[in-house]
Design goal:
Layout lengths: L4 H17 L4 H18 L3 H14 L2
Helix pairs in contact: 1-2, 1-3, 2-3
Length: 62
């Protein structure tokens, strides 16, 4: 299912920046895993899964 692609793209940029700036450790590793899953879902045009994974990546950094 497709959501607003611009919103997903902007969210992906934001999460990627957050992951890159996070200190090394388990939280960063988990965040990158979720980000990579979001990227794969976005490429497969599954924006709902991409949004879910981006939200999970943000939560992993908290």
């Amino acid at each position: 299912m497709k959501l607003d692609t611009d919103t997903i793209s902007e969210k992906m940029k934001s999460v990627k920046t957050s992951c890159g700036g996070a200190p090394f450790g388990e939280k960063r590793t988990q965040a990158w895993r979720h980000y990579n899953a979001a990227e794969a879902a976005h490429k497969a045009n599954d924006d709902i899964k991409a949004k879910y994974e981006l939200d999970a990546a943000r939560k992993a950094l908290v």
